[in-house]
Amino acid sequence: MPALEGFRRLRDGQTGADPALAALAPHFDADVFPVVERAGIARGALQLAWDFTTGSDERTTDDMLHARAASLAAIDASPPVVTVDAVFEDDEVALAVDDHPELTWRMIYGTFTAPRVVEGNEPGTKLLRDADGLPMAEGAIEVPFIAAVPASVRDGAAGMPVLFGHGFFGSKDELEGFAARNIMNAVRGVGFAIDWQGMSDADIGRVVATVGGEVDKSIDFAERVPQAMVNWHALSRAIESGAFFGHDAFTRPPARPGRDELRVPVIDVSKPTCFIGISMGHILGGTMTALNPDVRRTALQVGGAAFSTMMFRARPFSRFLFLMDISMPDALDQQKLHAHMQSQLDRIDPASYARFLFDEELPIGPSNAPDGRHALLQMGVGDPQVPNIGTELHARTLGVPVVEGSAKHDIFALDDVAAPHRGSGLFAFDFGVDTGFYETATPAEDGNAVHEAVRRSPEALTQLDAFFHEGVIINPCGERCTVDVPPGTPE
Question: Could you tell me the fold of the domain covering 61-473?
Answer without folding.
Answer: Rossmann fold (3.40.50)
